Amino acid sequence: MKAEFLHHVSLPVADLKRSKWFYGEVLGLKETNRPAFDFEGAWYQIGEGQLHLILDKTLPLEAKQVISSRGLHFALRVDDYDKTVEWLRKHEVTIVEKPHSKSGFAQIFCCDPDGHIIELHVEQPK
């Protein structure tokens, strides 16, 4: 077996409308067509990959949001570190900045409305 690329990540969400606002309006992801499944959700195209949101009505609406760079998360490459920080602050998103990470990326961490951790990063200036 040889994996070729990461196709998608699926996340359970408690409130689909709230999550679609966050991923579409705050993070600026483009929603794409989704098959007519017998459950609610939304798909977003991110480069060659996708993010799939799946409504899970058993989740609590008030999520515990603990931002940790070591926690389960996914990462999105962004075009500008400072503009991303400014945009997230404008939308009152709590962030943790790591502009000089040992990873080689200038990183910003935040949580979505369900507490899923998201890393946003750019190549670190050398």
In short:
It is built from two helices and eight strands; from the N terminus they run E-H-E-E-E-E-H-E-E-E. The mean pLDDT is 93.
| Distance between the amino and carboxyl termini | 37 Å
Main sheet attributes: strand count, strand direction, barrel closure: 4 strands, mixed
User: What is the radius of gyration computed over CA atoms, rounded to a whole number of angstroms?
Assistant: 15 Å
CATH class of the largest domain: Alpha Beta
- Strand adjacency order, main sheet: 1-4-3-2
Count of helical regions: 2
Number of strands: 8
CATH architecture of the largest domain: Roll
Helices and strands, in N-to-C order? EHEEEEHEEE
Q: Domains counted in the coordinates: how many? A: 2
CATH topology name of the largest domain: 2,3-Dihydroxybiphenyl 1,2-Dioxygenase, domain 1
- Strand fraction equals 35-45%
Classification by helices and strands: alpha/beta
Percent of residues in helices comes to 10-25%
Average per-residue pLDDT, rounded, comes to 93
The CATH homologous superfamily of the largest domain is called: 2,3-Dihydroxybiphenyl 1,2-Dioxygenase, domain 1
Could you list the spans in which at least 5 consecutive residues all have pLDDT below 50?
none
- Spatial shape: globular
